[in-house]
């Protein structure tokens, strides 16, 4: 066997090993999240942000991922959709996982795009989660409370045609208008602090126009492959270099008065892009 062949085989094994390890790697990302309208008693509160679990298990009964989550000691937990992949049918492990999260802190769940492929499974899951004390927000509003203060929390569920066309293409996908968001969610109060949970981050400016002070999203898996100095390479819609792949973004229209928080999520194939547990520590910003 020639040296060239041996070298090629070694590189192949090393590359394969790296892929396996990289796709099991988890990172805890800590971010400071400023919001000018944040009520005083929420200053310093921690939000654990999770999304896009898909088929990943992270040990028996999700014990490995739970270990990370327990160490965070969150005040609130947001799960931003794609709890399972579209070809999964057994929802019991996923419901049990969210129930364990609920033991740590109040937990809020919204629907992603993969849940929409199996409506019967989704309905059964949501009923089960509600019975376990998880707040399911499907075009609905809840209230985050801290002492005498509160934040309005909305959860958006977009129909499947906002993610993919009926022929499985991604051309000319629609964008939700402010009128559409008002119809589905109601019109938010301009005086109160408003958080929005929305699986797809591409519509950030529309969410900001609607009135979300902070939008939390996932869906883009951190860009799947992350390139040094560039960032995420690809979105689930097969778009190169998605505008919002991972991190905290300010609105072009409203500046720092409107923010988008995007987590890289937990599941799916990824390269140079560890699965992410995102922890946002709230901070009272200046007006």
How would you sum up this structure, described in words?
This protein is an alpha/beta fold and 287 residues long. 25% of the residues lie in helices and 26% in strands. The protein contains six helices and 14 strands. It has helices spanning 3-22, 63-72, 92-104, 119-131, 178-185, 204-210, and strands spanning 26-35, 46-50, 76-79, 107-109, 135-136, 140-146, 149-156, 194-198, 214-217, 226-227, 231-232, 247-251, 255-262, 275-284. The strands form three sheets. The protein has a six-stranded mixed sheet, covered by helices on one side. The protein has a six-stranded mixed sheet with strand order 6-7-8-9-13-12, covered by helices on one side. A two-stranded antiparallel sheet has the order 10-11. Strand 6 and strand 7 (149-156) form a beta hairpin. It is globular. It starts with a helix and ends with a strand.
Distance between the termini: 69 Å
Output the helix-strand order.
Answer: HEEHEHEHEEEHEHEEEEEE
Major β-sheet, in short?
6 strands, mixed
Report the structural category: alpha/beta
How many beta-strand elements?
A: 14
Give the strand line-up of the largest sheet.
1-14-2-3-4-5
Mean of all residue-level pLDDT scores: 91
Instruction: Work out the strand percent.
Output: 25-35%
Write down the Rg.
19 Å
Shape: globular
Residue share in helices?
10-25%
In DSSP terms (H or I, runs of 4 or more residues), the helix count works out at 6
Low-pLDDT runs of 5+ residues are 11-18
Brief sketch in words of this structure:
With 287 residues, the protein is an alpha/beta fold. It is built from six helices and 14 strands.
